[in-house]
């Protein structure tokens, strides 16, 4: 949460000239409710089930940059779906960066706790080993803009070969 998946993903899709799809936005649209409302009304398990369905649908949709929510990659099913037809990218950011980006927002239900910074720290520690299974890792930097991050992702994908090879640049 706060790594920039949605913002950098949108910028990346513009630069690559492919569609941008955000799993949270798709879930919200289908439910006609916000993520916070879905968590409150239907619970996290319901949200995770929708997330898995949406990711499967988006991964089958053709060339695109797809941003997921921060919990999606914890699911082995989702990781397998993503690996089957895509390249996974972890936007790796430290707690300081993440916290500064999410601290003033109320849109993330998992951080509506008495001590959201500690909650975020706990989630990060728990999740990092699984995020490390991503095929490409791109590190955020405190003063690196959204555009700068998108360029860093492109560089990392190019260095790896494959997905951008057909781009002709
Ligand atoms: N590299 C960056 N530099 C400055 N602000 C950023 C950067 N990446 C993301 N942000 C901002 O941080 C907030 C969280 O980003 P977001 O894309 O929603 O993260 P995620 O989807 O990973 O939770 C947004 O307000 C976004 O505009
Ligand atoms: O980390 C998580 O479990 C979540 C991250 C959120 O997305 P972002 O990572 O885009 O904030 C959203 O899917 C939901 O609030 C749960
Ligand atoms: Mg997001």
TrEMBL record:
Q: Where does the chain bind Mg(2+)? A: 6
Can you say what this protein is called? Shikimate kinase
Q: Which GO terms describe its molecular function?
A: ATP binding; magnesium ion binding; shikimate kinase activity
State where substrate binds: 24, 48, 70, 127
Q: What is the phylogenetic placement of the source species in the record? A: Bacteria, Pseudomonadati, Pseudomonadota, Alphaproteobacteria, Rhodobacterales
UniProt pathway annotation = Metabolic intermediate biosynthesis; chorismate biosynthesis; chorismate from D-erythrose 4-phosphate and phosphoenolpyruvate: step 5/7
Which keywords has UniProt assigned to this entry?
Amino-acid biosynthesis, Aromatic amino acid biosynthesis, ATP-binding, Cytoplasm, Kinase, Magnesium, Metal-binding, Nucleotide-binding, Transferase
User: Which is an annotated Pfam family here?
Assistant: SKI
Assembly information from the UniProt record: Monomer.
Gene3D superfamilies named in the record: P-loop containing nucleotide triphosphate hydrolases
The record's family statement is:
Belongs to the shikimate kinase family.
**Cofactor note as given:** Binds 1 Mg(2+) ion per subunit.
EC annotation? 2.7.1.71
Q: GO cellular component annotations, sorted alphabetically? A: cytosol
Q: Where is it located?
A: Cytoplasm
Required co-factor(s) are: Mg(2+)
| EC top class named in words | transferase
- What organism is recorded for this protein? Phaeovulum vinaykumarii
Which residues are recorded as binding ATP? 2-7, 108
């Amino acid at each position: 949460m706060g790594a920039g998946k949605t913002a950098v993903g949108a910028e990346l899709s513009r630069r690559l000239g492919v569609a941008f799809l955000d799993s949270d936005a798709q879930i919200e649209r289908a439910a006609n409710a916000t993520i916070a409302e879905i968590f409150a009304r239907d619970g996290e398990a319901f949200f995770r089930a929708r997330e898995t369905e949406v990711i499967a649908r988006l991964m089958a949709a053709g060339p695109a940059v797809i941003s997921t929510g921060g919990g999606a990659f914890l699911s082995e099913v989702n990781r397998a779906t993503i690996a089957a037809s895509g390249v996974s990218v972890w936007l790796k950011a430290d707690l300081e960066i993440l916290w500064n980006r999410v601290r003033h927002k109320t849109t993330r239900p998992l951080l509506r706790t008495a001590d959201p910074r500690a909650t975020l720290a706990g989630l990060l520690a728990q999740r990092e080993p699984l995020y490390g299974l991503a095929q490409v890792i791109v590190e955020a930097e405190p003063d690196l803009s959204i555009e700068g991050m998108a360029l860093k992702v492109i560089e990392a994908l190019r260095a790896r070969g494959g997905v951008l090879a057909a781009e002709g640049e």
